[in-house]
Amino acid sequence: MQEEGAILLFVTIPNPLIQLLQKIDELWREYVPFGALKYSINNDYNKSFYKKEEQTSQLMFSLALVVLIITLIGLYGLALFSANERIKEVAIRKIAGGSVTTILFKMTWSLTKIVLLANVLAWPFAWFFMDKWLSDFAVRVNLTLGLFCFAAITSYVLSVLTISTVIFKAANRNPVEVLRYE
Q: Angle at CA 127, nearest 5°, toward 123 and 128?
């Protein structure tokens, strides 16, 4: 809070110039005896002003990391379930001359379509909430389609890596072991 009669002066000053601050204070007292000079180093002011935003940023990063890990674990489980359900199909494709790459591509694509659809459905909500949050800042960051495309590509690559580890193991199994009791 600013005291009545006091004037706030924001100055960015390196540490060696403390004597200059003392001289300014002396001159201030000489010419303006009725009000105290209050000053703050600009970096400290900025830090205190954006402290809440920094805490929000750290919280959002932590939550996003937890959500990402849970999502990848769920996707891994879905890929494992799908691979176990389709293990006979994989074995028959392999016997018929299908390569591991072809099997990997077909099964990965069927599961990663869900990730792409989820991204496209999430974009309007993400844009709305991010736009609302960013509207409170003095310096405005424009939300572009490239930002959302980067997020979609990143999530797609992570999902492909997660799913392909499971599918690769299933595609490399010996078809004889799978079809032995059929």
A: 120
The Cβ of residue 25 has, within 10 Å, a number of other Cβ atoms equal to 13
d(CA 136, CA 50): 12
**CA pair distance 63, 57, nearest whole angstrom:** 10
Contact 3/36 with Cβ under 8 angstroms? yes
**Is pLDDT of 9 > 60?**
no
Residue type, 27: L
Q: What is the DSSP string of 145-159?
A: HHHHHHHHHHHHHHH
Q: Who's near 50: CB < 8 A, 6+ residues apart? A: none
Q: pLDDT band for position 42 (50/70/90)?
A: low
User: pTM of the full predicted structure?
Assistant: 0.66
Taking the CA atoms of 24, 26, 47 and 50 in sequence, report the sign of the dihedral they define: negative
